[in-house]
Amino acid sequence: MNVNQQPHMATPYGQPQPGYQGYPQPGYGGDHVPSGYPAQYAPYNGPGSAYQQGPPQGKGPLPTEALAQAPPHSYYGALPPVQQPFQNAVPTFSSAGPTQPQAPPPVSPQSFPQAPPISQPPFSTAQVHPGPTQSYRGPLPSTQSSFPRPPHPTSQPSAFPAGPPPTSIPSQLPGVMQPQPPVSQPSPYHSGPPTTSTGFPPQVGAPPRPSFPGMQGPPMASQGPPMASQGPPMASQGPPMAQANHILPTQPGMPPGPINASLSGPPPQPGMQGYPPQQNGAFGQVRGPQPGYTGPYPGQPNYGAPPAAPASAPAAPKRLDPDSIPSPIQVIEDDKANKGSEPFTTGVRGQAPPLVTTKFQVKDQGNASPRYIRCTAYNMPCNSDMAKQSQVPLAAVIKPLAPLPPDETPPYLVDHGESGPIRCNRCKAYLCPYMQFSEGGRRFQCGFCNCVTEVPPNYFQHLDHTGKRVDCYDRPELSMGSYDFMTTVDYCKNNKFPQPPAFIFLIDVSYNAVKNGTVGIVCQELKTLLDYLPRENPDVESNIRVGFVTYNKVLHFYNVKASLAQPQMMVVSDVADMFVPLLDGFLVSVSESRVVIESLLDQIPEMFADTRETETVFGPVIQAGLEALKAADCAGKLFVFHSSLPIAEAPGKLKNREDKKLVGTDKEKTLFQPQVSFYNTLAKECVAQGCCVDLFLFPNQYVDVATLGVVPTSTGGSIYKYTYFQAPSDQERFLNDLRRDVQKQVGFDAVMRVRTSTGIRATDFFGAFYMSNTTDVELAGLDCDKTVTVEFRHDDKLSEETGALMQCAVLYTSCSGQRRLRIHNMAVNCCSQLADLYRNCETDTIINFFAKYAYRSVLSSPTKNVRDSLVNQCAQILACYRKNCASPSSAGQLILPECMKLLPVYLNCVLKSDVLQPGADVSLDDRAYLRQLVSTMDVAESHVFFYPHLLPLQKLDVESMALPMAVRDSEERLSRGGVYLLENGLNIFLWVGVSAQQELLQNIFGTPAFSQIDPNMTSLPALDNPFSKRLREIIESVRAQRSRYMKLMVVKQEDKLELIFKHFLVEDKSNSGGASYVDFLCHMHKEIRQLLS
Ligand SMILES: [Zn+2]
After folding, report:
1. Domain named Zinc finger Sec23/Sec24-type: which ranges (predicted)?
2. CA 75 to ligand 1 center in whole angstroms
3. Helix, strand, coil share (%) of the chain residues, nearest 5
């Protein structure tokens, strides 16, 4: 069958989602909502009147340039749009039969609770109910007690940490370091030779290349201009941007290559009018050590910068001009300009979406939104030889429950009735736009495996003259990329509908946890947070039940049954064989047991205030939660708040094995591996029960994140780490993380399966999950932030005609206890020419894949080998392009494909990241933590994590909603007269130049004097001036886009903290030996030349 024959027109199931309005989503940036989750299912109340015909897609002039370039065969909906007959179609969306419209699904749309107010008084002021404390005198040595006993003498308080933690430096950061060598002499406001801003020399040299739809034959090599300057004609819809390749000049010491006067992009292609020329079309100046730097962007005239870092001095007498190599900022800005203004419609197969840094709206017209699925390549090679030759990874980054911005329609809920969702008989793919109906509508042929399946009588519908069902646009499953199915009992574990899930809070009450304040903070916060448990209908109370456990080296369970006057504690001190000492009264409804729960939460901090118990267990804590869920026969989530290495005698006991001497050796991998197998076994049991574990760590020293993280990362959970937690400076971050974590949308007991067309299959998976076979990704919990990256390999040939199809189906239990399927469909093009592959890749997604691949490889290989193989693969990718797609030119030139021109700079950021090339100050726990964190990141998160966002605040226009254009992550780009905001998804820094304008400082800090700025502040003063307001808004909106709350750090230039900040200036040489961008590019060039020779 040919999916291209399926017309796809814009069918916006047009209504904005009721219930979505009003949900505050400050600063939505295509990523996360701050908390809560999107409305799930709007009733499809779109009978005729609501049906809106989309733009005239599929015939005639297409709305976007990209479409205009596309040859007919690559449209995803090339047939004339279907029109009138369906204008008045019956809204059969959720009905089982075509003529029996049903009411909309019963699920109501949802709006979102506001975040609970910050609980101001931390634990120290928490009120304790006077009466009940008495009955709480302490844990008893055995189960079944009520409380009147003094705290049970505990193990020797021998190992008290001495003194307060050293600093409040955030956990992921290196500790305090030696003062930096003096910054080299600044030359502020230097005005160097003007560099290209936007206007480029007119592009010359390339003969006009009209589009040849369906053009076959070798790419341009045969007919290119002397310089390999552009790709072949667009046989398919490549990015609608200039196709200039990127050619670097001869490296120092090599004979100069031709200079790029003749280098150019192709002439504007049809439909390309209006795109600004690419900055990087012309490289080629080699200049001496930079005397200074003038910003490459208009409006940034004054970025004086110190001379090139002395560190790079040994390199060569001449160095590449950083302005002549591809600039991430320029690429990001070009994409915003080119793709940010129009909605991205998903009806065109193989069309690469805008970059993650571009704000855009998505319209689902038959393929999943890029918010759900991003691919490394939108033009897959037809066969494995091509794939192998190019070395371009074929992968998709899938975020099944991604939140959508308010102006996009969440997936509809489809109900096929008692027989369940309609599927292909053979491969079991779910009904989707890639199924081709035939025989008057009685059968359909599967787009994945070609098998023909009978249409159930109650789903029958006639076909129109184009072969399409006349109800096509009334049914999300026939016309949209993403939707949900209601399932039947057959889709439930043990053929039984699930119970509503439960949340269990397990709080470490050992000495360290009490002392650092977390016990009090958690208990205080839960009193309000419990009112904001996830729910699908805002008007109805959450179905989720809650339970509470505290622990040190023993566990305390609490009976909080509504009928009790006071909570009751039951102690389990035999942790070797964990069991739950009570069933009735442990898991309760918040509203029913509110009084008892509040009483408990008031008393816990008081009860353990004077504890001298320093030892903790950890394995039994998770076991306890797991057993409780088992006993209640439900799935759920454990929230574990833990402070120290679990050294108490118990299953899963750990020892301190931190050994930095292993770093860089062949044994380094053992540091990333769990030290005992206990947690792997436990994780497997948790997955079987649907028990997801979220771990909040508050360590003052090594806690072995690599081992403690096994269960969270195998169950779809999250790890949060607050090293040297101090309430005054870290509480805000922790509480925001906790609130978001508790409130966010989450599915339980999830199984994800990715089906593909014959010819390729999903072979490898990356993320936080468990797999007991080679196809099913099992996630005890799947929340709206989690992604799974899937790699595909050929097992046969693909055809250009049909493209490559994938369908991701996630079966999960919703927070209300319904068993559902989330379906995402994605079709990409296939190509028999390498040039087409290289024209339609997405580098940010490739980097996401490479990072995850590399971060997993450190478990089995020395980091040096991992780095080397990354460099090698990247070099092969670029060498293959050079050899097969670029025209012959001097070996002294580096030629990069347009859509991969940032591959070297981003890859270098991965290579020198703390996991792969740590500085001496990066702890093993930090590396394990980051390794696990990256494994679940989506593309937007991995992008900003590896290439932080750096904003020059002196350019901020308070009158405008627009942000100033970012600058490249290099010290050279910083002006001593400026103030910059840097964020990477985990941290926000405010860097203040020593000569920052007084007015700027006055507006931000309320003082004109640099020396008066307090570097310890974690929030900016709320000053009554437009600049202060706008800046604080920006910080809030940046925070709202990320899944983790970012603490603000103020860094004064030349202060000791500046070294930490400089770690994030990723284009520069790093302390740990990581290469600068310029140096790495030269290195990459050398590697490519070696491969080609
Ligand atoms: Zn099939």
Report:
1. 421-459
2. 23
3. 30, 15, 55
